[in-house]
Amino acid sequence: MGVASLVLGIVAVVFALIPFIGIAAFFIGGIGLILGVIVLFQKARKKGTAIAGVILAVASFIIAGAITGGTAVAVDEALKDAEASMESSAPADSAGEEPASSSGGEDKADSDAKSDDIPTEHKSALKSAENYDSTMHMSKDALFDQLTSEFDQFTKEAAQYAVDNVDADWNANALESAKNYQETMSMSPEAIRTQLTSEFDQFTKEQADYAVSNLN
């Protein structure tokens, strides 16, 4: 099963790199992850291939999430551009329209103006950050690293804008990650605390303390 986990992990990474069908990596990688975890709990088994399979499965989740999120953002931006083009080319209504006199119209105009001042890349980075936050429960620093990685390739400025403006609860993300380690890897509270503050998860000590203290 260790070899099967490794093979499935490799296949999941390959699928994750392909836009549109990369979502299949979640299914394939999930199977590989389960097989790898099973082998890790069998004392008589060699665990090298199982560990590699688990790592590749997790990597496929991250890659698939990044590429799927990036593709969705690109499609959404294209649709918005097409919609804006159609609106600008449509003929204006003739007489009979009363000008807006309420302050609501002015507020909307101010909001639109502020939105237009934000670079497109910053908006795309924010949408990707929101996608990662809802699916991967990452820390602020890990999210920044992911956005500036070779997979997402956002600039540091765009990534910083995204992590500063995403509506994320970092304590809640730390707790969700801790629960995942507890349920899938059966890790001790102290091992979970160490993992949460590692270079991989990059949660703060306070966030890790919150997560461990709120585990069931």
Radius of gyration in whole Å, from Cα? 22 Å
Could you please say which CATH topology of the domain at 117-168 applies here?
A: Arc Repressor Mutant, subunit A
CATH-defined superfamily of the domain at 117-168: Winged helix-like DNA-binding domain superfamily/Winged helix DNA-binding domain
Architecture of the domain at 117-168, CATH level 2?
Orthogonal Bundle
The tally of strands reads 0
Helix content: over 70%
Helix and strand content put the structural class at: mainly alpha
Explained architecture:
- With 216 residues, the protein is mainly α.
- Among the domains are: 117-168, Orthogonal Bundle (Arc Repressor Mutant, subunit A); 169-215, Winged helix-like DNA-binding domain superfamily/Winged helix DNA-binding domain (Arc Repressor Mutant, subunit A), CATH 1.10.10.10.
- It is 72% helix and 0% strand.
- The protein has ten helices and no strands.
- The chain has helices at residues 2-16, 24-40, 48-89, 103-117, 120-135, 140-147, 156-165, 170-185, 189-196, 205-213.
- α3 packs across α5.
- The longest helix is centred in the first third of the chain and has 42 residues, at 48-89.
- It starts with a helix and ends with a helix.
- The mean pLDDT is 74.
